[in-house]
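#struct-pred

JT: dropping the chains for the assembly here, can someone run the whole complex?
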Amino acid sequence: MATELVARVIAKELRDNPRLVIGLATGRTMESVYARLVQMHREEGLDFSACHTFNLDEYVGLPGSHRNSYRHYMNHNLFLNVNVNLENTHLPNGAAADIEAECDHYEKLLAQCGGIDLQLLGIGLAGHLGFNEPVSSLRSRTRVKVLSPVTRAQNAKLFQPPEEMPRRAITMGVGTILDARRCLLLATGEDKAQIVARAIEGPVTSMLSATALQFHPRCVIVLDEAAASQLQETDYYRWIFENEPQWQTYRDEATVPNGHVTKVNRWNKEEAQISPVRNGI
Ligand code: GLP
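RK: done, full complex below.
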């Protein structure tokens, strides 16, 4: 499964560097990744005690205690179920009195921690990373964004009543995300197929902030078959996962029989093209 593969990549990075600074994402897609990481913590001793985390975003107006806040989501899906030091887990404070100061503070905190080593990403139906809605500047930093109708329709289902969903959120900017040393995007399900194809193979545009990942030198995109179903170069991407040495460890995992990897850029080398093939990729 694609989810299993993503959890394994995170676990490997964390084992290689226990002080890893991890960028985290929320949403339904990530729930199973976090459940798997919790299982690895319990069964394999995966150690979170020295890592730091920074989440992408938070709704404006929701305190961390609100059941729909992303702080609540993270505490319950991951933080309270592993041995992470809660003081090392960071999300923007959506209930801050001075929201602009909070955004600046978040960027400063990130810089103080040395920046993000590995940024986990989902993709919204609006093609956003975090809450970088259409026409977000591709160089933007952490700031407040007004949520688009597509995003509101996607996420309002989680609020009761749906009208309670905030209209604004604090989000890391596209530029903030691109500063991460590595990016790892996961998308699953047929409803993401079209936006995934546009993000990976379409032209770069601020209308779809995920296209900015095409600029990132070390970005991996992991998809299940359904989410990959509208890509043009599927055979090429599949061949890479099935043959390239860098994926050997993960191919050997009996637990990832259907992992489908779209390799946007080399994991270990600076190369910013999806294609054409260079250096054997
Ligand atoms: C929210 C988050 C995004 C996430 C998206 C996808 O909008 N701000 O970071 O990528 O949800 O959510 P889901 O996985 O539920 O489709």
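JT: nice. Residues 2-262 form a domain with the Rossmann fold fold (CATH 3.40.50.1360). Residues 25-29, 56-57, 122-124, 130-131, 151, 155 surround GLP (CB under 6 Å).
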